[in-house]
Specification:
The protein folds into two domains: about 90 residues, D-Amino Acid Oxidase, Chain A, domain 2 (2-Layer Sandwich); about 60 residues, no CATH class. About 20% of the residues lie in helices and about 25% in strands. The longest helix is centred in the middle third of the chain and has 14 residues.
Length: about 170
């Protein structure tokens, strides 16, 4: 758009939902597996099953069977009775992840052009990212919480080594 190259990779993120069932999950359940499986129940009763981003960069918005299989296997290890659930729909979307997995909230070399890349936290980090991004745009200086999230960390080699970030992928 403005000739700015960003240190990000795009990876597919997949999820699926079951047919609606009576309430069984009150909380989000995270299961440690190769990709990191998570489950929750929607207000309509569907069991939503997802995993971290696929391990390969791609712009393809289609699912792959190994991800569905791994998520389902992980789910069944913890909830064997879910083996009777019927898969209702499956989808894949795009996740832009900075090379170090942490968000980028930064000015750029182009006057008036700012960027906000969520990192691997996705929608879970949106409120804090929106607040710090609004501060950056309004005051043209980084919010104290976002001082280390600038683009310059990639050229200076000061990447953020946050161990919990890889758990999302």
């Amino acid at each position: 758009m403005v000739g700015q190259r960003l240190p990000i990779t795009t990876q597919p993120l997949q999820a699926w939902v079951s047919e609606p069932v009576k309430p069984v999950l009150n909380e989000i359940v995270v299961i440690r597996s190769y990709y990191g499986t998570y489950l929750m129940q929607s207000d309509k009763g569907e069991i939503v099953v997802g995993q971290g981003a696929d391990p390969y960069p791609s712009y393809a918005q289609r699912g792959t069977f190994p991800i569905i299989e791994d998520a389902t296997t992980s789910m069944l290890e913890v909830f064997p009775s879910f083996g009777r659930l019927k898969l209702l729909r499956h989808w894949a979307g795009m996740l832009d992840i900075p090379y170090d997995g942490s968000p980028i909230i930064s000015k750029t070399n182009t006057c008036g052009f700012y960027i906000d890349v969520a990192g691997s936290g996705g929608f879970k980090t949106t409120p804090a990212a929106a607040n710090t991004f609004a501060h950056l745009i309004a005051k043209d200086t980084p919010h104290p919480l976002a001082e280390k999230l600038g683009l310059e960390r990639f050229s200076s080699g000061r990447l953020i080594q946050e161990g919990g970030v890889s758990a999302n992928r």
